[in-house]
Specification:
There is one protein chain. The chain is an alpha+beta fold. It has four helices and nine strands, in the order ααααβββββββββ. Strands 1-2-3-4-6-7-8-9 form an eight-stranded antiparallel barrel. About 40% of the residues are buried. The mean pLDDT is about 90.
Amino acid sequence: MSGAAAVVVNAGVTEILKHSVHEFRPDRSDNSSFPSRHTSWSFTASTILSNELYRYSPWWSVGAQAAAAAIAYQRVASRNHYASDVIAGAAIGIASTELGYWLGRKITGAPSVWHTGGCIAEFDPNVSLSSQAVYNFSNELCTAFAVDIEMRLPLSERWGGIASLGAKVTPVKTVAEGMQPLNTLSFQIGGAGHFILPVRSLAVEPFITVGAVRNAADTRGFDRYGFITTAGAGVQWRLTSRFGFRADAAYQLFTTGTSHNAILLRLASVAFF
């Protein structure tokens, strides 16, 4: 019931926006770019899988989000969508699924599937997969979409280390082509804090990382290699002994010939060990 309600809500919202917002695609093939239908559907499927299977293994949720994020990334890299289209599609997919589950619970009287079960948000070794919206300050760079896989290793009760691999696709405005994608790969290391809140299933996690960025597609006008640093904070929500979510907001500085500043928002599925 909940899954069916989620699909109906998602299809209704996506199609209404698809036929009422007339935005041209980057490749100028038609004017139905916003939002990304593929991304909306994939994040609906990902969220349904997380709702149903997160209690059995954290890798269901991590793997489902990775697949949905890969689809979103491909839609931007192939010039079928702007990053803002896939970010909107991801938000619609997640929100409509949670609304569908809420409607399903109202109809059936079932309890919420999201519960902490008394889990405490301790600082355990973990691997996370995150989907990111990157809002660039530069007029040349449009909003970007990024995917990161990250490992956090505690060194004490409140402090630990971070290592992450990331891929980001940024639509770049050009005179000749209208838009070309800037595909970058990054590797970052750094540190993170961990402070459990009075609601013991929640913890605040400040972090800072530095590393290198590589222009994977050798996009014209940008250097092959550069520097990247990210600093921010997030909230971890521990749902089971092995699974949780993390939501972050951060400032990012990166160089690819010239310096660029951005604000990023990311949502991560986290597997604990």
